[in-house]
Write a structure and sequence with these properties.
Order of helices and strands: HHEEEHEHEEEE
Largest sheet: 5 strands, mixed
Bound molecules: cobalt (II) ion
Helix content: 25-40%
Strand content: 25-35%
Radius of gyration: 23 Å
Mean pLDDT: 83
Structural class: alpha/beta
CATH class of the largest domain: Mainly Beta
Length: 170
Amino acid sequence: MKKLLFVCFAAIAVSCGDSKKEEKEEIKIGTQTEIKEAPSETTDEAVANVTIEGNDQMKFNKSVIRVKAGQKVKLTLKHVGKMGIEVMGHNWVLLTQDADIAAVGQAAALAKEDDYIPTDMTDQIIAHTKMLGGGETDTIEFEAPAPGTYTFMCTFPGHYALMKGEFIVE
Ligand code: CO
């Protein structure tokens, strides 16, 4: 009997906690709606702030980035690892839709003097950050290209097999 009472009490406590949580969520939603209606939101719509990380495991933390046509893209690449630029360099390179990722990757591997950006393939590159070592950050700004799906990659030798993703302009 004692056990049964405890179970009942626990059930009441749980349901009470739930209703409090719901109330909090409703308040939060209300606040978000207010912010969306504020005029300052219009200014923010013109800029897509994107942050992407590269790590010592040779990976980006995002495989898809979405922006809207007409937006200015402010993209920050953070190398969150500790390894040096010589062994685990990362950059973020956005390719045109007709670019061949393997061809760019192979040419880039031979372009160490040019920060792994092949100078004879810049017509296939829309935008790119600097090559970074662990702990470094670079921010670039560019206009979102025409709607469609593009490829982004890291051009450090051998990295694009794992370090690539889709850049979608809606
Ligand atoms: Co890399």
